[in-house]
Specification:
single chain; 315 residues; alpha+beta; Globin-like; Heat Shock Protein 90; 2 domains; five-stranded mixed β-sheet; two-stranded antiparallel sheet; 9 helices; 15% strand
Length: 315
């Protein structure tokens, strides 16, 4: 926490307003401790230091005036106790949720790994047979059409298995300094879009961050693929970026129909999709990769103007 952040925290601590936004800002501290794996005793230690320093300031201010000093010290203690209670409550909630999520993912991962391995073998045999059939059908266009359809669906099946395995794997991050404009340009070039769907970017030049370029590229490939499909057959996709307080924000926007509010709350869960032929793994994988980089991803409605997915990463 730098001095500016500490000063802002103390101002709101002592001046309020003590409303819902105040509670949510305090709750974020406990959640952040869980996210970075910091033990909760650090919160106790930090709060003790703040308590001691504020008591010292009060003692200096009201020296020789115990009628004002004692109530002030009691008020400081109560405010800080409440502050710590909020942090510990959200810390415990998020820690339990994280543990439950980890247990579910471990069980799901074992199942996916087993099924994925078992499915690869028959799919491989089908691909070999398909290759042999292509050379024997000659110029029969009807047969070629059916074989092309089989090949296409084989690709879909293999893609689903790969996405499931990627979602479950904890591959080490091959961190290096990544130029954002090169990352976005590479992602855009790999996403097929209709001629009537334009893809543009702004604010990404000169921005860099530490991360795994391959995995981060997958994040933006998935988001751009969704955006292009949502904006089709005629529409626009915009990638907008900015940086503030050491954090890079990248928003991928489209002019499609947006996402239903009931679905939006569950968008990043596995097997949740808004597509007719989707599987619901792309956004779950995006969330997993971004969080492994210490960032966050969120969906934001554009009020009938389309969808916006916002990725936040440390620069």
């Amino acid at each position: 926490m730098n001095w500016g952040t500490l000063q802002s925290w103390l101002d709101s601590l002592l001046r309020g307003p003590w409303d819902e936004r105040y509670y949510e800002n305090r709750a974020r501290i406990g959640r952040e401790h869980v996210r970075i794996g910091l033990p909760q005793h650090y919160m106790f230690a930090a709060m003790n230091v703040v308590h001691r320093e504020l008591d010292a300031i009060a003692s200096g201010t009201y020296q020789g005036d115990p009628e004002r000093l004692l109530p002030t010290c009691r008020a400081i203690g109560r405010i800080l106790d409440l502050e710590l209670a909020i942090m510990l409550h959200t810390y415990r909630e998020d820690l339990l949720a994280q543990q439950a999520r980890a247990e579910r993912l471990a069980t799901f991962g074992q199942l996916v790994g087993s099924i994925g391995h078992d499915l690869r073998n028959p799919l491989g045999a089908i691909e070999i047979s398909l290759f042999a059939l292509r050379s024997s059908v000659g110029k029969d266009d009807r047969s070629k059409k059916h074989l092309d359809r089989i090949g296409e669906q084989l690709g879909v099946a293999n893609s689903i298995i790969t996405s499931l395995l990627d979602l479950m794997r904890d591959r080490p991050l091959a961190r290096e300094r990544v130029k954002l404009h090169e990352l976005i340009r590479s992602a855009v070039s790999s996403v097929e879009s209709p001629e009537a769907v334009s893809v543009s970017s702004e604010g990404i030049a000169g921005l860099e961050l530490d991360g795994d370029p391959g995995q981060l590229r997958q994040v933006f490939v998935n988001l751009l693929t969704n955006a292009v499909e949502a904006a089709s057959p005629v529409g626009e996709v915009h990638v907008r970026s900015s940086v503030a307080d050491g954090e890079i924000t990248v928003a991928v926007e489209d002019t499609g129909p947006g996402v239903d509010a009931n679905v939006a709350r569950r968008l990043f869960k596995p097997l949740i999709t808004t597509k007719d032929h989707g599987v619901g793994l792309g956004l779950a994988l995006v969330k997993r990769i971004v969080e492994r980089h210490g960032g966050s991803v969120a969906y934001e409605s554009r009020g009938g103007l389309g969808a916006r997915f916002v990725v936040r990463l440390r620069s």
